Amino acid sequence: MRDPGAEQAYDAFFQSAWPRLQGQAYVLTGSREQAADLTQEALLRAWTHWDRISRYENSEAWTRRVLQNLCIQSWRKSQVRRRADPDRTATSADVPDDHVLLAEAMRRLPGDQARALLLHDGLGFTVAETARELGVPDGTVKSWLSRSRKIVADNLNRSIRTAPGGGEA
Amino acid sequence: MTTPTDEERVAMVMADMLSAGAARPPSVTPADLRSRAQGKTLQRVDTKVLVALVAVAAVIVTLIVVGPLRSTNPPVHPPVATQPSTTTTTTTTTVLGEETRQITYEPFTAAGAIQPSLRVSATFSAQTCVASGVAGNSSYRCFAGNDIYDPCFARPGATSGPLLCPSDPAGDTVVELTTSDLPAPLQGAPDTRPWAVQLADGQVCVLVNAAWGGLGPLGCGSTTPGPVADCHIPVTGSPFWTAACQDQTTDASPFTTNRVDTVWF
Q: CATH code at A34?
C-alpha cells in the first residue's frame, strides 16, 4: 500500500500524460480503441513501478517507451493473426483515410525507425533528443528519418485502392 | 500554392492524429488502474506458486523417465535433425545434441535455383521491400497485402525478385515474393546476425524487427508451440549457446536460461 502522497502524484501524472500518450498510441496503431487499451496498460505499468519512476526526472519518458513497445508488440500479434486469417482486416470505419495510411506505413517500419519518426516529426524532438531517447548516434537517427519518412510519405500519397464500397477512395 | 514536402506532409497528418488521439477522454480513472495493479500483483503471486509446482513436477518426471543430467533424446520438434542439409549451409559439422549447431540459412543454391528441399507454399507480389531485414544486410523486410515478411532472401547480388521468406527456418516451406525493384543491401549493418534459434525443447524463436524494452527481441511460439514467449539474443557458449527467455512478454515475467540447440544466421 503506497502513501496518499504517491497516489496524488500519480493521479496528477495520469491526468497530464494520458492525452499525449493516447495520441502517440493512435499514431502507432491507427485504432482509437487499441490506443485507449494500450495507454491504459502503459499507465498501469507506470503505477506498478511508481516507487522507482516517480523519482525519474521525466516519468513520462519511461511510460512513453513502455507504450511504444506495447504498440510495436501489438503489430507482431496482429501480424501473426493476419497470417492465421489472411482475410481479416483491421480498418476502423470511423478512422480517416490518411490516418489509416499513416498508421499502416508506421507498421511497415522497423520499430526503432517508427519511434524515431514519431518522436521527431510528431512530437517535435530534435535529432539529438531523439538519438538520446533511442540510445543511438545522431547520424543513425538522420538516416532512419530520411528513409522512414519516404516510406510513410509514399504511403500517404497513394490513394486507398479499394474503398469499403469497392470504388476508389 | 506549393506542394508540402514529405516531412511537412508526414508532420501534418501525424499532428492531426496526435490531436485526434488526445481528444478522447480517459476510459479509466487512476484509481481503477491502481485497483487493477493490486489485483495483478496477487494473481502474479498465485501464478508463481503454480509455476514452481509445475517445475518441480517436471523435474521429477524427467529424472524418472530420462535419468539425470543431459538427455540423449532427440528434441521434441525434430525438423532440424531431419531437415535435408541442402536447405542450408552449415558452418559447423557437429552432431545434433553435442553442441549448438550454427547454420547459415541459404534458400537458394549457388546457381540461383530454389533449394530442392524447400517447398513454396504461396507466391505473392511484394508492394515494397526494404533492406533492413532481421537477418542482416543480405535480407529484406517486405510487404505484401496486409502482411509483413521478414526476413526474405534474394539471390546473391540480385536487383529484383524472387525472394524467399521462411516463417520457420526449421521447416521446409517458404513464401515466394515477386518484385521488380529490390533496393541495394543496407550498408553498415552486420553481414549476418543470429535471427532465429531453436531451444532444447524444439521451440523456434525468430527475431522481430522492432524495439523492445527488456523484452525479446526473439519472438517464440508463432510457428512452433511451446512454453517460451520471447528470448534475448543468444549468448555464445561451449558446448551450448544459451538464451535468456521469458514465459510471458511482460516486464514481470522472470528470465530463465535456456539451452539453444540451433542458431540460424
A: 1.10.1740
